[in-house]
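Q: What does the assembled structure look like for these inputs?
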Amino acid sequence: MSRSDVLTDADWVEAHGGDPGVVLVEVDEDTSAYDKGHIRNAVKIDWKKDLQDPVRRDFVDRAGFEALLSERGISNDDTVVLYGGNNNWFAAYAYWYFRLYGHDSVKLLDGGRKKWELESRELVTEVPQRAKTEYHAREQDKAIRAFRDEVVAAIGHDNLVDVRSPDEFAGRLLAPAHLPQEQAQRGGHIPTAKNVPWSKAAEEDGTFKSDDALRALYGDEAGVDFSRDTIAYCRIGERSAHTWFVLHELLGQPNVKNYDGSWTEYGSLVGVPIEVGDGK
Amino acid sequence: MSADGCGAPAGGAPVSAAKDAGTQAVVQGRVTRNGSAVPVGYARLLNSGGEFVAEVPLGEDGGFRFFAAPGSWTLRVLAPGNVRAEREVSADTGKITELEVAV
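A:
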């Protein structure tokens, strides 16, 4: 898989965003951004309301994903281009869902909403009307999703990549610094995890760094052993979806999983080992 | 903003209903150009080593807010037209540090 199979840019989106067989999707946690203005022809997916189970801590099941995509007018053979705020965190998380449920052609808009805005490109409030479809999802591909027991088993054995900020990794903060520090679980990180903040994979405008720079970042600088399996985690699994995208989709590493339970699950488990302090 | 979300809302998450910092070390402010709010742009918080820590889109009033740890930080503003501005700022627990950034 090459970079152009999984990433596209703003010029392409401006030229082809309205083509038949192409669906632009803005994915955010706070969809007021979409409501105030979005890329022409883009539909929206709410990271929480649309993609999370409203009761259990899990995400929409296969039938729920099928219903969502059918309602948004997305077909199995469409090329889906995802973008969003927060440097594409939630778009990357949705990308991971699309892969998890077996969608063939899905890409991220490199730089997401931020680069688009900083370049003063067109945003519209007009909501496209798309005819309903009958979307068919596959069973979840568990090869790209990690659960807690696998994470505990990976300690000291496989690569664990903690993509949160250094202060969260060390246990000084329990959430990113744009949010109140109010969570109750323990701070710290999973023993043997390497701290490679997601932001190191991105340029200031939100685009991904080059493959060479990314390979050097995880390999030479952080000591991730590419011959071993890898699990990425953060606080709730969306920043680590960004890193999963880098390792699995851009660098083509075969055995990379996103642990969507992430620190809000691990840091609340009874009896598991936790390390505090800065990365080594 | 829900407690279990992770995204950065425009302008930053609200402080508390009581409008004080409580146990937080808040850094907040507003980005202006010729005295008017800059509503499209981003505020980034960098640590004392220059590493990225957090980012929020500016609010409609040009506002931003971070919940930092006590210490020294750099605030960097990005806005359309290749606008970049930086300010050094220090945060303290229980205090709201305010700054206005003119670009």
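Chain B has one domain: 25-102.
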